[in-house]
Structures are given as structure tokens and as C-alpha cells.
Amino acid sequence: MKFYIVDAFTEELFGGNPAGVVILEEGCEFPSDSIMQKTAAELRYSETAFIKPLVPDQFQLRYFTPVAEVELCGHATIASFAALAAAGLTGFNAQICTARTLAGDLRIKLDQGLVMMEMGAPQCLGKIQAPGELEELYSTMGLTWPVQVASLESIDAVLLPQIISTGLPDIILPVKDRSTLNGMQPNFPALIKLSQNYQVTGVHAFALDGCSSEVTAHCRNFAPLFGIDEEAATGTASGALTHYLYTHQLITRGQSCTFIQGEAIKRPSKIRACVDPQDDRLIRVGGRAKILAQGMIHL
């Protein structure tokens, strides 16, 4: 099987979020779950995507972290289609493909090096608003409630955490400012327990202060339940954040958003997102990717 190491959501090598990508030979079936799990653990990236080509421009994708299979992974999807283009299995200019995942079928557009994917329809799975719940959540993240958050219009407003899924459920967590965001030191054992209790992948924290027309928000993502203490770029959570900002009237339909993530772990990432101008249930997330290495896996 051919494999690639791809830095997703970046225009430069050693930026963004690295993913493993394994492309099966045409007509071959997926290896056993245990083999894919061991392969992902051996590659040691937060996610490794395994790709089975189907008919032209349709591909089945499965995603493994070092410890478990997940239904969807945004940055590994971006990495996958960059690798497929490099392998000559799809075009890279104005090409529309379909990714069949455990979270559903996703339309992927490749255009001049930019890979944009349609996320699953956003689901709001609950607000975290009881005083005891808020105190537990923020203290787990090394913060203190109440938290004052500045909106994009620089008007102070209290925004509450919310569980949202566009493929995977995450707690979208507003924090006061970038200084607070950068200083977060979560209690990871407590965060694992909290993630289990809320049945979420993890916590996606964001700050709006100091942003501009070029940057919508700065973010950090934590998912220790799946073996990822902190992730440099998170596509599914970026989709959830886009829906959160839209429902709070902080962005509008069709507005292009840019999220900066990974700064705290020295892997700055640029994630692009938007709500479809005609359908606010359709969110697109994407970015660019750079291929670092490729080779063969012999099983």
C-alpha cells in the first residue's frame, strides 16, 4: 500500500496538522481493523486515513487515531485529497469528488491547490449553562467562570459553551481573549472524564479579540480521550465553530472565515470555512496541504 505524510491546513511544510494517508490498490479491500489500528499507531500521527478507491472520483475513507477509529477527521480528509491528486487518482483543478465516510457522504472540491469539503449538517446537541457545569468545564480547562467575551463588533457579550457536531461532536468553548487562550493548561485526566460524560470528541476553544477581516478567530483544540492532547488544526471542530458563530450572528451566510490554530504548539494552521449563501445547513471547511513524504507499507 502506498502511504503519504501530509501537512494539512498550511501552505508551508512543517506547519498545519500532519496526517498519515494510506491508499489501497484498486480493487483491494480494507485490511482488518486491527491492522489499520496498528498502522496508525506505528505512523504516530493524530489521525491516519485509509482510502479505498471506488468508481472515478468516489472514495471510501476510514480514519484511525493511535487508539481508536473515528467517524470523520477534517484535516486527514484535506490531506487525503491532496495525496490522491499527487497520486494521479483525481484532478486538482475544479474537480468535484465524493468521500464516503462513517459520518456520511461528503462532497469535496479541489481547485488550484485548495481543498474544500462539505461538512455534515450541523447538529446542536446542547448548551452548557448551569453554574455547576460551567464551573466544572472552565476549571477543567484551567480557567475561571464567568468569562467575558468580545464579539467581532467589539461589543462585550457573554457567550455560553455549546456542543455542536458537523461530523463529530465538540464542546465549542468561548474564552475571554487570546492571552487567556494561549495560557490554557487543561487537566487532561479530568478532560477525558468530562468528554466521556458529555459524549464529545473534545473541547474546541476560541477567542475573538484582535481579529480582523483576514482572521475570524484564534483557536485551540484538545481531544485527550482519543489520544490527542492538543491538535494543530481540526476541520470538524472548525465546522462546528462556524455554525456557532453564525447562530450567534457573528458571521453571515457566504462570509469567508479564517481560523488560526496550532500557534501554541508551534504548528500554525490556517483553516478556511463558510456558511453556504443559500443554505445555512451547509458548511464548507478547507485549506491547502503540503506533502512531506511518501513510500510503501508492506503488510
From TrEMBL:
Any one Pfam family match given in the protein's UniProt record, by short name: PhzC-PhzF
A molecular function (GO) term: isomerase activity
Residues the record marks as active site: 47
Gene3D superfamilies: Diaminopimelate Epimerase, Chain A, domain 1
GO cellular component assignments: cytoplasm
InterPro entries: Phenazine_PhzF-like (IPR003719)
Record's keyword terms, sorted: Isomerase
Similarity comment: Belongs to the PhzF family.
Name of the protein: PhzF family phenazine biosynthesis protein
Gene source species: Hominibacterium faecale
